[in-house]
Design brief:
2 copies of one chain form a homodimer. By secondary structure, the first copy, chain A, is of the alpha/beta class. Chain A contains 14 helices and 16 strands. The longest helix of chain A has 24 residues. At the A-B interface, helix 4, helix 5, helix 6, helix 7 and helix 8 of A face helix 4, helix 5, helix 6, helix 7 and helix 8 of B.
Chain lengths: ~500, ~500
């Protein structure tokens, strides 16, 4: 079977894990999810597609059957297979890309849509391995550099299947557990010890459905209406919104390139929300003296610290610092999530804290029916226990490092005061821009099919810095390169 | 293999689906989950247990391996297999019980704990199929008649495994979908049409993580602080708590044996929360004239109706009425959940509403990161598409009907004013009691190892009725019988 026949590269280790039909269904799924194949469009006949790809017809039939079972395709209306109505309404669910071959990974344009007519067509999944992949980015297929999206297509499908098989083998519980699945809490405690220098027992861990759910519990259980909460400025918009919705008073506290400016911590705050591993969005890693100052402040103010460790797993240039919670386990509520390491669609996160706080937070969660799917907890426990999650994070770190390097290469040498910030960790960088230029740059980029976030959304008050937030979790290396070349042109023409 | 060797009955259809090792791991899991096997306790040697049960040693090894993988058991400390530390903190996760054999289903006491000493022991999973099962309810194993727990052990393990296998085969999405998985929304739309007389398209359905999450979205998206919300009195405590936490003003509106008393609807309410299929907790089915009055009131008041359809699937004596939403799709937000049909541990529910409302609610959900595990949505879509969910609901309806009949038989003929209410649907009945007697009855029941809810928790104001809420979702038929015989004695001695 030649590379020529199928665009998804077949590597030795993946060929075993991912049958051909899975590669083909993955390409079709991506085409439907991205809108390149539209509802009602007819797919090539399985016989014709098989001939064109040089595979057996059963491979195609299996791929179609899988997509049919998933709801992407519609029953044969007598004369063929069609894209189902009502799909898609979510982002690209592309097939897996082996990280070592990112440049040859799936791209928009791998599969082109068969015309909507029902006449016999030559199959449209054609092979052209010599085609420059960047050209596959069509004008109508915008490149989305919004931050916060991980590359879920990089998840090894065999590992994913194994994890859910384990989840399905566990007997369903009759009610939600108070703290979450014991096996998952034990696995996370080991993980936090190993990777984040955080010593805590499984009884100090509460499973959540993600950082937002953890923040809701903190606000509900530990704050009274009107309590002041210090939040990094710029910072995580959703954290501000959740605290405000729960009746707290958000007090912005300045963050700079090194993270939270601890000398600016407000008097009277009951809680401070911070992202010490990788300040969101500026990208700084909170230096040790500031960590000590933050803890000293909290101790003397009788305040608690919420440490959002949202993407500590991905670091490139510098070694990670241990979690802040390790320095003051009595004062810090440590929040983690799989939204960046795996996908937000899993809906599993956790918090680690003092036992009495965990009890109070779990009680609040039960009262509000904040639920975390238990089979998903089984699946994550399996991914932890097998080492599959660690392997995935290592592979993705290499892949994200490549994308980041491409962005730095494209945007690194812009004339001052434009400059890149926060490129040492995480899934985004910030491109600082001169005053008055961020909005026009974003608009000009949008006109060229590139969606970027402006930094002003991250400020509660007047923005102290202007710039763009460029996420590279949801795009391929080539898309990142293409987008950043275009951005460079736009920026150079405007500033 | 004889019935004598294994306590979980092996029926023809289940023998194929549930291997012996699964039955044995299920019994052990239940023993650990219920606390009968405690952390650190040593399990029988696999060879000895195999000999005692008359099965091959590989069956036992497989059972231990499964529990080890799930985190219930700890690594061999050199000299055996032990119950892991940190388990359990949630309720009984018993093995599956074939519904047609409920009387012979798993019971506390099926597996007794091996002594904590490490000396060689005869295996403790012994067989005694002639033992009266009711006597297996040990004094320390309380019977929990709290409402709201379904019989998750009744889920067919083969169907459950198939559903999660389908979930694992779907490519993980890189971000949460706006409305939820298209295939699930299509399946639910068909289900609502078929079973609830509700005509709506998949684009009128929003996937939630359950009723509580739906209520949070409604409160966040559609209410302003201080808006009045009418809530049934007595009613769902959590609904009141959620509306209050979101800043709304809860106005109790009387409910009687027929459900919401529509003549008592308060002027000025922006929203009314109601459970027309089966009033929670009194159990009435809202009659058609009241349905019309409710809709008329909402239309003239410019208010919306939230219909919590939480356990409409289980009805015994009377035919279900179509959903209220079918009568006024423009005014009713219809909430559904799998928390009663399958298990709250799944964390998947839905709401159906007008398109503009669905858009507003989805926006609020995205802003709050209210997430529903996407693989769980795939699994539920598979259970719907295969008919497995329908089959499960039909089987459980028969099983619940049996338990309900046992309760009615035990408590039906009590002297007035004691009487049973709401026995025609759902997973609980209410035992009305004379003033001043509910608390002493509940306390005396607790002393006999029977946990029951008193009705006063369901009132926001002074309770207009006294009584007990007796849930039978989480207990076996025999446990229900045992508990209700004891309750009868307690009630007769007190009132």
């Amino acid at each position: 079977l030649s590379r020529h026949a199928i665009e998804l590269p077949v590597t030795a280790d993946r060929a075993a894990a991912e049958p051909l039909s899975g590669q083909i269904s993955g390409q079709l799924r991506a085409a439907i999810a991205s809108g390149r194949l539209r509802a009602g469009e007819r797919l090539p006949a399985s016989r014709a597609l098989a001939a064109s790809l040089g595979v057996s017809r059963t491979v195609i039939t299996a791929a179609y059957a899988q997509l049919y079972a998933e709801g992407w395709l519609d029953g044969r209306h007598g004369s063929g297979t069609f894209v189902a109505d009502g799909v898609p309404d979510h982002a690209v669910a592309a097939g897996p890309v082996p990280v070592g071959h990112a440049a040859a990974g799936p791209q928009p344009g791998d599969a082109t849509a068969p015309p909507p007519s029902r006449s016999s067509q030559t199959p449209s999944i054609t092979a052209d391995s010599g085609r420059p992949l960047a050209s596959a980015v069509t004008p109508e297929g915008a490149i989305d550099l919004s931050p916060g999206m991980p590359w879920a297509a990089g998840i090894d499908p065999a590992a994913w299947r194994r994890a859910w098989r384990a989840a399905g083998a566990a007997a369903p519980a009759g009610q939600a557990g108070a703290l979450g699945l014991p096996a998952l809490r034990a696995g996370l405690a080991a993980q936090l010890r190993r990777h984040r220098g955080l010593l805590c027992g499984p009884d100090q861990i509460l499973i959540t459905s993600g950082v937002a759910s953890g923040l809701r519990l903190v606000a509900t259980a530990l704050l009274r209406p009107g309590d002041a909460v210090a939040v990094e400025e710029p910072g995580y918009e959703k954290a501000r919104a959740i605290f405000t919705a729960c009746g707290a008073r958000v007090v912005p506290c300045r963050a700079d390139e090194d993270g939270l400016v601890t000398s600016a911590l407000p008097a009277g705050a009951r809680l401070v929300y911070t992202t010490p591993a990788h300040q969101y969005p500026l990208g700084g890693r909170l230096p040790v003296p500031r960590r000590q100052a933050l803890i000293g402040w909290a101790r003397s103010a009788g305040a608690l610290i919420v440490e959002d460790d949202y993407d500590s797993e991905f670091r490139y240039d510098v070694a990670p610092l241990p979690a802040l919670a390790g320095l003051a386990p009595d004062l810090v509520i440590h929040l983690g999530t799989t939204a960046k390491t795996l996908t937000p669609a899993l809906g599993v996160g956790w918090l680690a804290a003092r036992r009495d706080l965990v009890t109070a937070l779990a009680t609040a969660g039960a009262a509000a029916s904040e639920r975390t799917c238990e089979p998903a907890q089984h699946a994550l426990a399996a991914l932890l226990a097998s080492g599959d999650l660690d392997r995935h994070v290592r592979r993705m770190s290499r892949e994200y490092a490549r994308r980041r390097a491409a962005i730095v290469a494209a945007l690194g040498g812009l004339p001052a005061p434009a400059r890149l910030l926060g490129g040492t960790a995480g899934l985004h960088v910030v491109l600082e821009l001169p005053p008055g230029s961020a909005a026009p740059v974003a608009a000009a980029a949008a006109a060229r099919g590139i969606r970027v976030d402006t930094l002003d959304h991250y400020f509660a008050g007047p923005p102290a810095v202007e710039g763009l937030v460029l996420g590279y979790g949801g795009v391929t290396l080539r898309q990142a390169e293409t987008a950043c070349r275009a951005l460079r042109e736009v920026v150079t023409s405007i500033i």
